[in-house]
Amino acid sequence: xxxxxxxxxxxxxxxxxxxxxxxxxxxxxxxxxxxxxxxxxxxxxxxxxxxxxxxxxxxxxxxxxxxxxxxxxxxxxxxxxxxxxxxxxxxxxxxxxxxxxxxxxxxxxxxxxxxxxxxxxxxxxxxxxxxxxxxxxxxxxxxxxxxxxxxxxxxxxxxxxxxxxxxxxxxxxxxxxxxxxxxxxxxxxxxxxxxxxxxxxxxxxxxxxxxxxxxxxxxxxxxxxxxxxxxxxxxxxxxxxxxxxxxxxxxxxxxxxxxxxxxxxxxxx
Length: 269
Description:
The protein has 269 residues and is α/β, with parallel strands linked by helices. The chain folds into two domains: 5-60; 109-265, 3-Layer(aba) Sandwich (Rossmann fold), CATH 3.40.50.150. It is built from nine helices and twelve strands.
């Protein structure tokens, strides 16, 4: 079980459906769709964490918070993938043969490439090489991982998210990158969807959710396929690895800061 307050907070937030989470030096800012959801989450967290939590309510206009929090973001490079906001154009001096540039709008959808978990997934995805394969992106957020899979040559990409703002953001990013007809976007809870299967399954979620849904995620991986996961802290890695390791074979591991990214494979036979 997580022991420090940050891990306890991450685990408790898992069931409260925040719109987004912004990490700051002074703590976390957690966004909810409306004041009622925010206040209910505050009460639940206060009960769950007791003296470990100090929470102050704040009203932030939907249209402003993402722009303000991300307007100073620069470009991010992970292997061949370069992620940039629309107001930046990768300079010629930074261009390399084979670069794939993704333009991501600041939005309510998680995933600008600046968080370690997104970078870990992007690195593991490139190492796996989805060219010619079917890819499923669970909890797509901004759609950055789905876009990366498409640009890396995946033959089909299905992006799923149960948050309406994330689906809207992902759709805008697909349009912006001229991929709107090449990536299928579905609004709904992957846990309730049937028939999900792919050669490569991407799941940048939370450690707690990965443990609870290990069976669902593993079942979506076809023989010879791979599951790439992140969103788990190093403290949660053992639980996630144990849950998924019972169903799939560990294949790769990357670490950045306090976060881990893992890949599991399903043998052909």
